[in-house]
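Retro notes (design track)

What went well: tokenization of the new backbones is finally stable.
What didn't: we kept losing track of which sequence belonged to which structure.
Fix going forward: every design gets posted as structure first, then sequence, in one message. First example under the new rule, 395 residues:
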């Protein structure tokens, strides 16, 4: 029996670049002690007060089928949060609650891409982006940014790749690079979207993790509200990764159609999860800052440690829970470096190549272990890179 090309071609064939991660997980299961700096999973769990709200809701009987668009309470809470943070008028009719940000990304692309359309995305990219576009039936087309330009996408690069495209997917603060897109960058992106009649899909799941600069939602820029779909999630802002609660924000007409899509696919998010999310969002800035604080501290530690050496380059670590380290001076690919680091020092990082060709020669470090172990691991990475660079220079 034949399977659809849509399902068999999600990853585009070949390795997905995550072999180091899977190998590290196997080593951990075999009893090895690994300093795991791979995926964006908080080292703290969901806050007890959020779990209490979840438990109370479930015990009060909110365990049946939920309203497909999301509860009025959560949609209103998300809308109010976004309006307060961005100044852009937002109501519940602009919001669909989804089972996590990944579901929101897929729904957004289904909304705007017909089979055979081109969906643009930026390289480096979060690992699921091209597969999400292919899963919606579109052709995924990457636009490479450069380390020399701090991975800020430029309007001329996007415009040059835009023939035949209907959408552009962006992510700021960015995973994997940690870069926060500047107002100049976003104005350039908006100009191309208006000029090329593109839908903009803006993944903003790291909007509470900004260490330098400011988070600007492109939905607030002139002429962009009617062509922008914003993806958000409770996963990163509130350490609720396993709860699977996210949203799409966009024009009312789009949200109405996406509610119809949800009726035929996910059929909503459990009510007790939504109640917990409503409680968490209503707790305000202090709780969000408590969740973000470990990454803010570790980012400061990393800047201090990396300033003491001259082998590794740090891509501007302006937001999110990651560092992108430039290791090209060590003479190895990111994948070769990550494998050697795991074998030699039991430290697991993600090769830059896992996130696209633009990050070759880099590794992504997740700041997701306690401060002391994180600092020790980063110092080891610096020493290892310096030794490799010295050996490479002597060849």
């Amino acid at each position: 029996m034949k399977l659809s090309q849509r399902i068999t071609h999600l990853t585009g064939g070949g390795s997905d670049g995550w072999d180091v991660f899977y190998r590290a997980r196997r080593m951990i299961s075999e009893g090895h002690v690994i300093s795991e700096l791979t995926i964006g999973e908080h080292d703290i769990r969901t806050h007890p007060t959020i779990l209490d709200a979840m438990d109370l809701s479930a015990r009060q009987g909110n365990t049946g089928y939920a309203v497909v668009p999301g509860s009025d309470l959560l949609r209103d809470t998300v809308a109010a949060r976004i309006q307060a943070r961005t100044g852009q008028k937002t109501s519940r009719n602009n919001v669909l609650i989804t089972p996590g940000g990944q579901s929101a990304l897929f729904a957004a692309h289904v909304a705007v891409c017909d089979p055979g359309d081109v969906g643009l995305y930026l390289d480096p990219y979060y690992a699921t982006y091209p597969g999400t576009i292919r899963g919606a039936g579109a052709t995924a087309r990457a636009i490479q940014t450069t380390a020399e330009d701090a991975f800020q996408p430029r309007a001329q690069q996007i415009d040059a790749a835009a023939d035949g495209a209907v959408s552009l997917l962006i992510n700021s603060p960015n995973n994997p690079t940690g870069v926060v897109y500047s107002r100049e960058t976003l104005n350039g992106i908006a100009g191309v979207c208006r000029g090329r009649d593109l839908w903009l899909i803006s993944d903003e799941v790291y909007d509470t993790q900004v260490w330098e600069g400011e988070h600007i939602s492109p939905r607030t820029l002139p002429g962009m509200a009617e062509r922008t779909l914003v993806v958000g999630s409770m996963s990163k802002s509130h350490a609720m990764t396993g709860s699977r609660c996210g949203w799409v924000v966009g024009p009312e007409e789009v949200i109405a159609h996406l509610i119809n899509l949800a009726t035929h696919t996910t059929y909503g998010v459990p009510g007790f999860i939504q109640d917990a999310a409503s409680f968490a969002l209503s707790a305000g800035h202090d709780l969000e800052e408590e969740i973000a604080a470990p990454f803010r501290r570790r980012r400061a530690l990393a800047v201090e440690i990396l300033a003491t050496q001259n082998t590794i380059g740090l891509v501007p670590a302006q937001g999110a829970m990651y560092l992108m380290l430039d290791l090209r001076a060590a003479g190895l690919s990111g994948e070769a470096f990550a494998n050697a680091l795991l074998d030699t020092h039991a430290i697991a990082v993600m090769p830059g190549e896992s996130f696209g060709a633009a990050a070759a020669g880099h590794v992504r470090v997740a700041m997701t272990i306690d401060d002391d172990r994180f600092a020790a691991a980063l110092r080891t990475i610096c020493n290892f890179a310096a030794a490799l660079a010295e050996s490479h220079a002597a060849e």
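Added context from the reviewer: The chain has two domains: 5-45+286-394, 48-54+62-283.
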